[in-house]
User: What shape does this take?
Amino acid sequence: MSGERRGTRVAHEALPPQLREAVDAFADHLAGVRNRSAHTVRAYVTDLVSLLDHAVRMGCADLSELDLAVLRSWLAKQRTMGAARTSLARRAAAARTFSAWAHRAGLLTADVAAPLASPRAHRDLPTVLRADQAAALMDAPRVRAAGQAAAPRADAPHVGSTAEGPTTGDGPTASASPAARGASGDSRGGAAEGTASGPESPGGEDPALLRDRVLLELLYGTGVRISEACGLDVADVDHARRVVRVLGKGGRERAVPYGVPAQRALDAWLGRGRPALAGPGSGAALLLGARGGRLNPTTARRIVAGYAEAAGLPRTTPHGLRHSAATHLLEGGADLRAVQELLGHSSLASTQIYTHVSVERLRAAYRQAHPRA
Assistant: This one.
């Protein structure tokens, strides 16, 4: 099925043939008609296979026998197995989406999931960095570069080498220690490449550090998702207007501005860093991994976490930087609609959570400072 071609393969061989065909057709619809991402298709198809497997166990040999009672029984079972409220809400949404599609396709005589209620997902307030903490994180690659220049170790393996653990992709495994992993999360000195250190830029700088710097500046300076940052091509950067063209969820394209620090990081990376890492497999990718291919999100997450740890900051993820960017924009007086556009949210409700973060900070400051709090 086309879902398989998009990396959405989900085992469903145990289902009866008619139900397998329905799963395949639904995956094709999500990927080809609704233009959902491979991750979304995989999640929905996984939920659907679970639902249909439950239906078969309840005696439904045919899709036409699926009804509201089976759907509710399935969700109840998921809850007893410890599924979180957010997971239950997503699974209910997947069931409703499938039911509506199957009804339109003539596979169901009625949209049986239309009245299906789902638990209201509990939304924790996102963890955000303070402005000074974000500034320290942005400065972490420069601090690390200064430390390397002050104390070079020609006999030591390169940051992220396989000396203390195997590597996968462009970064070390999660089992590698922070010391072996390094702040950059890179693995250019891995044994597989047979070298103790990676290439240097024309200016003698470590290209991985230049890459790390521009990654951090873009994530915080634009608030883009990690998948969006890793998906950027060189041509997506408009240097004259200082904006990047981002392809977001659902194939929606938007232009996001960035500031002077990000521009400086981009200039250094494109002028001195990227040429040192680029190879035959680089293509048009803006951000490159250790072996010259497009930087993957898993490695990027390790890079962010490594620098946050090195700077003594709370555990930080790329999505945490997105939260921080949105919160700081609102605290600085940005309009909520403008922040919605910058983040690429289809609904204003998704953006409004950041107003709660600001209110909570205000309340905390009030409790700490006001004598009659």
